[in-house]
TrEMBL record:
Gene Ontology molecular function terms on file: monooxygenase activity
Gene3D superfamilies attached to this UniProt entry: 3.30.70.100
Species this protein is from: Sphingobium scionense
Alphabetically ordered keywords of this record: Monooxygenase, Oxidoreductase
Domain ABM as annotated: residue spans: 1-65
InterPro entries with a match to the protein in the record: ABM_dom, Dimeric_a/b-barrel
Protein's recorded name: Heme-degrading monooxygenase HmoA
Amino acid sequence: MFVAVYWWRVHPGKEEQFRAAWRRGTDLIREKYGSYGSRLHRDADGRFVGYAEWPDEATWRAAFDAKMVYDDPATRAAFVDAIAEVPVDADPIFTMTVTDDLLVRATS
């Protein structure tokens, strides 16, 4: 398994818009590119951090190189509109191969 970690700062008042677009975009990326989905976190400074799981680095790289474009312009527009800041070049802050996975998956 392979993971990529991203972060975004969101315009004040657009947090729910961002989260809804992130959820829909994650579903579309999973369907089109074969990701396992992702988790969204919020740190103490208000920054959103996404952790996305992929079957392997090659699958992630193909999606990343394609800019993870999906056929839902309204979702993409809502996502972009909510974002105030991303890392330089919008690259992930980490890409990593999972060596040991001890997470217990929630059943609900």
